[in-house]
Specification:
Blueprint lengths: L4 E7 L3 H12 L4 E5 L6 H6 L1 H18 L2 H4 L11 H26 L2 E4 L2 E5 L2 E4 L2 E10 L3 E3 L12 E2 L1 H4 L8 E5 L3 H12 L3 E5 L11 H13 L3 E3 L2 E8 L4 E7 L6 E5 L1 E4 L3 E3 L6 H4 L22 E3 L10 H15 L13 E3 L4 E6 L2 H7 L2 E7 L4 H5 L6 E7 L5 E8 L2 H13 L4 H5 L10 H10 L7
Parallel strand pairs: 1-2, 1-6, 2-3, 6-17, 8-15, 9-10, 9-15, 10-11
Antiparallel strand pairs: 4-5, 5-6, 7-16, 12-13, 13-14, 18-19, 19-22, 20-21, 21-22
Helix pairs in contact: 1-5, 1-10, 3-5, 3-7
The structure holds flavin-adenine dinucleotide and 1,4-dihydronicotinamide adenine dinucleotide.
Flavin-adenine dinucleotide binds next to helix 1, strand 2, helix 2, helix 3 and helix 10.
Length: 464
């Protein structure tokens, strides 16, 4: 008979869960991971980070070829055609390769995959597909799902969530994105590049909530220039799905005259909520906070002995790398080591063009805590960005006025997602803006803009 007793059982095999399981096994703990999907990797690998980046990459190449960017460099592509089926095949290949890769890693590290839906039957006991299992410690890593919009029913054809938006069989004439956050702008970018008109309906007065104010303003300007129609301070009242199209009724957020918008496809992307339904958390004695999340301490302990939680199901940014780092830390704690995640330094990236990346405090948040100095440097003055004709955006560094310690870094640039890593590392090491300014950066690179922004904190950039 198969093993039913483990040192650790992890529920959920997303970036939080599968990483926790692998690390726990590496550290000598007898580990199982419960996953109800057909493939491992969770939201991120199956219907999130990976497939969305595959389509973002492919659609960017298409736009460069079809809309003259390549031609401006002397590369003439005649009769550029979109083969959407092939593009989707590329997406599925990426997902298939990576999810199979996790299965291989489970085998290599001797992690047992318990296939099926897991639910608690007691603090140290769970049931998976009718079979009882016990573990000294259980880690909840069940992730999150799309937040539904009341009155707007998702059919994954005309009204889709992010999963449906990754799989559209044809390019919609008009796509309306409800929610001007990360998913709306990334997947909106994909379909705009492939030929759709995209309208973003955002409830707040600006897109990208949570980001630095200056970044939000500049990003909206850039997206509008790209052809996005952005309707802020607007709420959706209802969606009538007529099969071949959808009529959306919208209203000013503060109330007022209603209007209708005709759409071929509506993407609902108004946030995600933690997956706790069906876990029978009551049998384990776990309670949720007001947002439906499982509260944990720095050691990822829930209020119940032997039960831990990580990733999207807990408070904090819903990001794969945050979940992964928590996965490593919780496994190390369970193995008797010291597992730590510095939640002050979690980078975030929006993979649009240009990319938008941030780490640490926004200028607004930093000012609420004390006096700050801010250095900015436009990508227009960065030689590499200018040469590549991708000069939109800027780097902004927020530092403590007295200690000069870097509190936050915000970047809009073609490769902001890659650039932000050095800012995160600098902050992790407690760097001052002067430390960054006096670090030699290779020339010509986009990253020199970070050095110049750091020099600008004390008012002495060279190239502006
Ligand atoms: P998940 O990845 O959600 O995994 C949880 C797993 O648990 C799921 O596979 C689920 O089936 C399983 N599960 C749940 N309940 C049970 C149960 N009771 N029994 C058995 N199994 C169960 N983040 C980034 O950092 N970068 C990106 O570029 C990015 N892009 C994204 C794009 C999209 C379209 C979406 C939707 C999300 C994106 N994210 C991105 C967010 C990222 O996917 C999540 O933050 C991340 O997947 C969270 O990891 P997790 O392990 O907490 O949960
Ligand atoms: P989000 O929180 O980023 O954005 C949701 C947007 O919808 C907000 O601007 C919000 O004000 C707006 N909104 C809420 N209710 C609304 C309503 N009724 N009408 C109109 N607008 C409304 O959430 P999103 O885009 O759904 O993404 C969910 C999460 O997935 C993100 O928070 C992020 O953590 C993760 N993600 C990360 C990515 C990355 O790291 N590149 C990519 C995609 C998703």
């Amino acid at each position: 008979m198969a093993d039913t007793n483990f040192d650790v059982i992890v529920i959920g095999a997303g970036p939080g869960g599968y990483v926790a399981a692998i690390r726990a096994a590496q550290l000598g703990l007898k580990t199982a991971c419960v996953e109800s999907r057909e493939t491992l990797g969770g939201t991120c690998l199956n219907v999130g980070c990976i497939p969305s980046k595959a389509l973002l990459h492919a659609s960017e190449l298409f736009e460069e070829a079809a809309h003259g960017t390549l031609a401006k460099w002397g590369i003439k592509a005649k009769e550029v055609e979109l083969d959407l089926d092939a593009m989707h095949a590329g997406r599925l290949e990426a997902v298939g390769g990576l999810t199979k890769g996790i299965e291989f890693l489970f085998k290599k590290n001797k992690v047992t995959w318990l296939k099926g839906h897991g639910k608690f039957t007691g603090p140290n006991a769970i049931d998976v597909a009718g079979q009882a299992y016990r573990a000294k410690n259980i880690v909840i890593a069940t992730g999150s799902s799309v937040t539904p919009l009341p009155g707007v029913e998702i059919d994954q054809r005309r009204v889709v969530d992010s999963t449906g938006a990754l799989e559209l069989a044809e390019v919609p004439g008009h796509m309306v994105v409800v929610g001007g956050g990360v998913i709306g702008l990334e997947l909106g970018s994909v379909w705009r590049r492939l030929g759709a008109k995209v309208t973003v309906v955002e409830f707040l007065d600006q897109i990208l909530p949570g980001m630095d104010g200056e970044v939000r303003k500049e990003a909206a300007k850039i997206f509008k220039k790209q052809g996005f129609e952005i309707r802020t301070s607007t709420k959706v009242i209802k969606a009538e799905n007529e099969g071949e199209g959808v009529t959306l009724t919208v209203e000013p957020a503060q109330g007022g005259e209603a209007q209708t918008i005709e759409a071929d496809v509506v993407l609902v992307s108004i946030g995600r909520r933690p997956n706790t339904e069906g876990l029978d958390l009551e049998s384990a004695g776990i309670q949720l906070n007001q947002r439906g999340q499982i509260e944990v301490g720095h050691d990822f302990k829930t209020g119940v002995e032997g039960i831990y939680a990580i990733g999207d199901v807990t408070p904090g940014p819903m990001l794969a790398h945050k979940a992964e780092d928590e996965g490593i830390a919780v496994a190390e704690i369970l193995a008797g080591q010291i597992g730590i995640v510095n939640h002050e330094v979690i980078p975030s990236v929006v993979y649009t063009f240009p990319e938008i990346a941030a780490v640490g405090l926004t200028e607004e948040e930093a000012k609420d805590r004390g006096e700050v100095k801010v250095g900015r440097f436009p990508m227009m003055a960065n030689s590499r960005a200018k040469t590549n004709r991708e000069a939109e955006g800027f780097v902004k560094i927020v530092a403590d006025a007295r200690s000069d310690r870097v509190l936050g870094v915000h970047i809009i640039a073609s490769v902001a997602g890659t650039m932000i890593a050095q800012a995160a590392q600098a902050m992790e090491f407690g760097a001052t803006s002067e430390d960054i300014a006096y670090t030699c950066h290779a020339h010509p690179t986009h990253s020199e803009a970070i050095k110049e922004a750091a020099m600008a904190v004390t008012g002495k950039p060279i190239h502006i």
